[in-house]
Amino acid sequence: MITKNKFARRLGVSRILQTLCLGAFVMARAAWAGGDASDGHTHAPELSTATTSTTTASGGQTSLHLRLADLSQSGAGTEAPLIGAQIRGVLKRAESGETLAQVSAHNGNASGTYDVHFDGDNETIVLPGAGRYQLELNIQPPKGEAVRATVPFAFNPTSMQDTVAQVPLWRRAVPYALGALALLLVFVMMRQMRTRRPTPPGASGKSTSTAPEHIATTVMLLALVGSAMTAHVGAHGGEDHGEEEEASAAASAAPTNAAVETTSTTTAGNIRITVIARTESAAPQTVAAGEVMLSAQTAQLLGIDSEPVDVAQLPSGVAFTGQIAPNPDGTVRVASLVPGRVTRLAVSQGDRVRKGQVVAVVESRAVGEAQSTYQQALARLRNAQSQLNVVRQQARAGVFSRAPLQAAQQTQAEAAGEVRQAETTVRQAQVALENVNRLARVGGFASPALEAARNTEAQAREALGTSQAALSNAQAAVTAAQSELARRRQLAAAGSYQSRPVEEARRLLVAAQSARAAAQSEVATTRANLNRARSLAAEGLVSQRDLEAAQQAFETATARLETAQADERAAQQEVARQGQVAGSNVNNNAEIGQAQSTLATAQADVRTREAEIQRARSQLQVATVALSRERAIFRQNIANRRETSTARANLQAAQAGLYKARRTREVANAALGREQLIFRRDLNNTSQVQQARSGLLQAQADLKAAQSTLSLLKSSPGASVAVPVRAPIAGVVQTRNVAVGELIQADAPLLTIVDLSTVALEAALFEADFARVRIGSTVRVTTDAMPGRSFTGRISFLGSQVDPQTRTLTARALVNNPGNLRPGMTARGQIQTGIGAPAITVPAAAVLDDGAARIVFVDKGGKYERREVVAGNTSNQRTEIKSGLQPGEEVVVEGAPALRAEAARD
Fold first, then answer.
1. What would the pLDDT profile of 343-357 be if each residue is shown by its tens digit?
2. Are the beta carbons of 138 and 146 closer than 8 angstroms?
């Protein structure tokens, strides 16, 4: 029988076990929750990396896959794959923005997965290494607009052993501790159940059954086992690694290729983009310190090239290879000063010439054109002189002075009329304003009947004012007509109306004479051109088309001259006719009759306006009676202010118009005064004479320019079109660039004359050798064309600037030519300073300066060893190696700086 104290103790043990189970459950959950932060796995929704490799994937082949989902077609809990999209873009490094490859993908399978191709058809790419990358994509769905997106992903391949090593020790021990606690709990429960006794029949007190406690403990046990499994899974990053551990074991047993997979997800518009990067890498190879290992593909990309180490005897002097060239000071390119056709060549290639000898003759069309230009300029000069004489005659007759004065007088008269009209408008507006004010004071605009009466009375007053103003205008018109009649009678007495048509006819006669003189000048010019063209055509210097054009121009000028002569005869007849009309006094009578008719019309208008005033006064009396009646009926004041403002605005507008008209009249008066002053001083005539004189001066300048052009072309007015070309120096004709009958341009080289008594050897010296060379240094020259013979010369020129591409400077040596050296021969020169002993040599490009030491890279078949050497002198592009290399070894010549950078990075 179990006593009460024993039962209490057992119950306390059960409680303690339950508490331990609960604590273990909490610890397991905490361990699982911390898995994401400490197990080396990243579970961010946008960037996740899953390591499934057992070896480092450095230098492996990486393939990319895209999984596209159409969010606009996706439902709750499901994603619709995007099929049939066209994808293009670039793969870049995120940190530096360096473009690695152009990418493309098309169509895709039913799950929306696309295989990415690099630079066309490549399905894989070698990533430079661990780091962050990004895909910049342009996605064109089958329907809708294109979407641009940038998808980043991290590439950090690590081995499975490294991943496990990153898990803390206490987390790996949690599953085992929980398992031991579970076994202890099972053992205690079995013992309790074995020693439990049922309650005796008839026993008093509550039941001492521990079944509920056991049930609770069992539940805790199950939770504890689940927590242990959860903690174990959490310790491995929340993933089931059973299969991966088997794969890792298999990978450890056999060194096969391992795979590293990286995923990343982003959303652009209605498209969710998932990038899956999978890298297949070979087992790592062991590289010794100081060595660089490159694949054949990488070595080819870097341009690696090797050469064997050799033993040679380097000269102690400076040697170089160059070409024989003409002496720059003895080479002259002979050219023609004018373009044209070569009609004679007096020398051939290889001939000797003396200084000043005629070597060619060029017939130049430019010389003929210059001669024609001179003749045209001479004709224009004569025409300008004739035009000046005509203008002077017209100026003395006053042709250029009367028309502006008459126009100014007409403008002033029109402006005065506008002022009178504006004054009448102002008076009418003032009358209207007074009427409105008077009506407003008595409330004339307050009712329709009263307003109508007031309007009628105002209209009557306004009509009376208008009639009065019209009468004033008519009286003013009568006064103006009387003044105009008196003025015309004075002008008729002075004979002004008779002389004006005569002057106009004379002006037309002078213009016709000017046109006839210009036509005569043109005929003379075209006749000279026709004669010159006929002469040149006879000599074969111009084509038949040019001759026909000159003939056509002469015929056109002749027709113009005949027309001008006919116009001159017609003008002379018009002058005679106008003189006869002036003697008959017809114009004076017409002008006076017109003025009298205008006066009679104005007087009739005055009588009409007086009758209108009488009618207006009668209408005003009737309107005043009606207004008095309406004012007695209604005395209110409503619309008075509006009418007053309108009348005042009309008055202001009329005043503004009057001000504008007066300003216009002032401007017209000023213009009339200016034209009168110009007329008195005869400035218009002077201006025309000055313009004609300016044309004469321009023609004189054109003639001088034509003379200067002939002088530059080594010709004179009326000279031949053939220009001789003379040799500037004595020598041998090296090249002849033209043939007889060939057309050439100005300054085009005809032939080259060379003085071959001395020739030059031109070559390029490296920087290291240049410091040992001086102007005047002796150079021994040999050529392949004359083996066994050597020539001696001296350095005459050293370049002042290093070529940034070849790192060389130009040197030139002058060599006395016994007659066998020819330009273009390949020659070798050397500045002798002694002969050195046999030594190990390598190409100079193979030796690099690495700060404290000189290094080379030795090619060992895929591996490149960095080796320090002791370098000696450099000559003829080879460097002496005193220690560090053995004959027969291969050293890197091309691409050594890239290997140095790779070795420094390792």
1. 888 888 888 888 888
2. yes
